[in-house]
Write the structure tokens for this entry.
Amino acid sequence: MSGGQHEQCIACGSKMRTFIEHISDDRYGCPGVYSIDRCVSCGHMSTAPRLTEEDLPALYSNYYPRREIDFNALEKEAGLVERPFARLRRWMAGTDNQGHYLAKPGQKVLDIGCGSCLSLLEMQKLGVECWGVEADPNVRTIAEKYALRVHIGNIYDVPFADQNFDLIVLNQVIEHVPDPLAMLEALKNRLNSGGRVILAFPNTGSFHRKVWKERWINWHIPYHQNHFNRTSFALLAQKSGYDVARIRTITPNLWSVLQLRTSREQRQEGRASGTWSESGSFEKSPSFIRKLRNVTVTRGARLAGAMMGFVNRALDATGQGDSLLVELRLSATKN
Ligand SMILES: [Zn+2]
């Protein structure tokens, strides 16, 4: 561990300097104070002290809320992918910041960190052959119910060993991983020839990050270990033997709504935020009053989201959106 010393930048090897001195878990109230270091050369940021793979099970099982899944809500959400103009709707809402939407019918896709399995259900409806990997054992119930091929564990277990993939998707995953370089390298020999790795993760070069500073929702301390910008991510990708085929920014309107809601909250180390404890979309809500309130909040949020959409689409077009969507191919100059 760092012991107060700055480590080297994982993307370019340069020196890191403290960028945010004091930051803690403002979503789920996990105790502990962290800082964010910034590379003097490429601007890459890392959470300090760094966590290791061994730290993660306790952190996630104690503080990351996973409740009972509402299967009806999940199925309803997955069905939206077949609605008319689904693509246009996703573009307007900024929800197409997810790699699996780039999959074509008949392709073989591995989704790493598939969570609720929504992406797998959507891909099935779109005629995509899909597999998933997820660390959370609670997801097994969902996989079994829908007969989905999900490996509970991680990519280093070499799941589905006899299968290679046209696309490997990591939606909001790489920023959580203690060693993203090792992760990218582990994926290289799981690609079919011409295959791509598609990653979505927060963009520290975004307009929202600059406006909200240490209150930006995507610091998500301590779960987010690395905070990329387009330069630092491209450097890391090259280092692990990939070329960046395409890179763009997308801002989910929901993120902006959550950003506005949390900005009014008092923050205190070790205390969970009301916004985040209520925002899980497939969780069973206990009381009628809570349901009623959720409907009101959701309608208000949709309206606010639609208005914010105009701003977000303009930010995305200028490359200043809140989430990066990156497509990687194996480097042509690979030895
Ligand atoms: Zn750097």
Remarks:
- The mean pLDDT is 89.
- Residues 9, 11-12, 14, 39, 41-42, 44, 232 surround zinc ion (CB under 6 Å).
- The CA atoms of residues 289 and 295 lie 10 Å apart.
- The first strand starts at residue 16 and ends at 23.
